[in-house]
Specification:
about 90 residues; mainly alpha; Wheat Germ Agglutinin (Isolectin 2), domain 1; 2 domains; 3 helices; 2 strands; binds zinc ion
């Protein structure tokens, strides 16, 4: 049992998901990340912070398999877009 499995299991239980399935998906995502050779840390251009890969949502269309901006900036942008749809991205 790796620390990653433990963490994934804890998250799954908190969110009422099937732990076995969630652990499998987290492991697959970690494998994809390793396969792509992405760095454990990357800098978010929106907030200029260097954050661990886990702070970024997955985006399989991107070269490193991660969104360009961190989850926090993604969420902030989504919230702004929702508040004023005409303002665009
Ligand atoms: Zn950010």
């Amino acid at each position: 049992m790796s620390p990653l499995d433990d963490a994934a299991r804890a998250v799954a239980e908190r969110h009422g998901l099937d732990p076995a399935d969630f652990v499998r998906r987290v492991r697959a995502a970690a494998d994809r990340r390793r396969a792509r050779g992405s760095l454990p840390f990357k800098t978010c251009p929106a907030c200029s912070r260097e954050l661990p890969a886990l702070a970024y949502a997955e985006d399989t269309s991107k070269g490193d398999g991660l969104k360009v901006t961190c989850r926090e900036c993604d969420a902030a942008r989504t919230a702004r877009r929702r508040a004023s749809p005409s303002a665009g991205a």
